[in-house]
Design brief:
Blueprint: E1 3-4, E2 11-12, E3 17-20, H1 24-49, H2 53-86, H3 93-122, H4 126-151, E4 154-156, E5 161-166, E6 174-175, E7 178-181, E8 186-188, E9 191-194, E10 199-207, E11 221-226, E12 232-240, E13 245-246, E14 261-270, E15 283-288
Antiparallel strand pairs: 1-3, 2-5, 3-4, 5-9, 6-7, 7-8, 10-14, 11-12, 11-15, 12-14, 13-14
Helix pairs in contact: 1-4, 2-3
């Protein structure tokens, strides 16, 4: 646990930050993926921006240089050929053949330079651009996934309510299953969030023997007695949870042997301003028609 951002009894809104786990590793991973995505996007922009003017100018200069080399080789060959035709003794046959070969080499170099210029002018290959686009998309999705996971390291309120209890402290270990409870030797919620303080719900457990006598619907009338006082408060019927289950609410579920089964019935009550009444209290409920 890195930081607790609320206190018990504090009212929170849906989406408010409640606590933050240690996210240093996940944050570093997210930032690394963000940098990789930016680098891949920069390379994609570079491919799309081709040809670069400076590179194209160099290729054009190479074409001009090879054209000049070809012209010089052709001139040399023509001079030696004219001399050879006038007097074969002035130029050897080997020198004439070398001049002719120099023209062929210069012509081939010019062809290569022109093709290189055309290749640069055409820009990046479409398949290279498509491959890089997919690289960018994959890295951006990985970054988005890592960012979503990073957001899970901050626990937020799912709805408006009140912080009823905080069951951990900074520095304690917390897992997706909750915080370790030394009393029950199990895990429980790190934070318990309740409804707004103006309205409270009461869950009443009706013994299965009394279920046939239970009135349902609008006819149900019920009142609640607060233990340790003579206060009796009327309640409004909300619903029945239509599933009879073992009564294990007051003991360790893993160790208790249960013989009684109960039906949960939910009521609601407006919290009185002049009476101390808190979530989690045990109260007595009387139900009638």
């Amino acid at each position: 646990m890195k930081e607790i951002l609320v206190s018990e009894g504090q009212q929170v809104k849906a989406g408010d930050s409640l606590l933050r786990l240690d996210d240093s590793v996940q944050r570093a991973t997210t930032e690394q993926l963000a940098s990789q995505a930016k680098a891949a996007k920069a390379l994609l922009d570079e491919l799309k921006a081709q040809p670069r003017k400076e590179t194209l100018d160099v290729a054009a200069a190479q074409v001009t240089a090879t054209e000049a080399s070809l012209k010089m080789a052709q001139d040399t060959y023509q001079k030696e050929l004219a001399a050879y035709q006038t007097d074969p003794r002035t130029v050897s046959k080997d020198a004439l053949d070398s001049a002719a070969n120099a023209v062929n080499v210069a012509s081939a170099n010019l062809d290569v330079a022109r093709k290189q210029y055309a290749l640069i002018k055409a820009g990046a290959w479409i398949y290279d651009i498509q491959s890089q686009e997919r690289q960018v998309m994959a890295l951006e999705e990985s970054h988005s996934s890592a960012g979503a996971l990073l957001g899970k390291y901050t626990l937020r309120a799912p709805r408006d309510g009140v912080v009823l209890s905080i069951n951990t402290i900074v520095g304690n270990y917390a897992s997706p299953q909750g915080a370790y409870d030394a009393y029950t030797q199990g895990t429980g919620p790190v934070i318990t969030l309740g409804s707004t303080p103006t309205q409270l719900n009461v869950r009443c457990y009706v013994d299965e023997i009394l279920v046939p006598r239970l009135p349902l619907g609008p006819k149900v009338q019920a009142q609640m007695s607060i233990r340790g006082s003579n206060v009796k408060l009327p309640m409004q019927f909300v619903r029945v949870q239509p599933f009879v289950s073992p009564k294990i609410e007051l003991a360790d579920q893993r160790q208790e042997r249960v013989d009684v089964r109960v039906l949960p019935v939910i009521f609601t009550i407006a919290k009185p301003a002049n009476i101390n009444l808190f979530p989690g209290e045990l109260v007595d409920v009387y139900i009638s028609e």
